[in-house]
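Re-run with default settings, no changes from the original entry. Doing this only to confirm the output is reproducible before filing.
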Amino acid sequence: MSQTGFLHHNGIPAFFDFGVGADFKRPEYNIAELDQGGLGLPDRDYYLNTDGDTLEIQDAYKLLMETLLAQVEPASTDLHQRVAAVFRFEKGLAEVSLSRTDRRNLENLYHIYTRSVCPHQ
């Protein structure tokens, strides 16, 4: 099992979230849902804002990642570089994620596909 599969199996929506829920427009139907997810910080704005408070939160988050990684790999000499790479990756996910405001508009979240348009039936 991949690491992403392992995390999803254990309820952690790494990179994306997948599940079943009521159709927004036809609530009598349950449908498969694929949604954004996988950020370590609560929201995309924690990665994209540059005010002083947000930068402090980013620094604290990076320090937490270094601390946790040091416990898992105590002999690692490149903790700072590895944490920076993870943060860049997460920031890239945040850049293509919808904002909280955009997510309030259900039309931004509603993209129904039928089996006929799925390439791997």
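The chain has two domains: 1-37+99-121, 41-96. The first strand starts at residue 16 and ends at 22.
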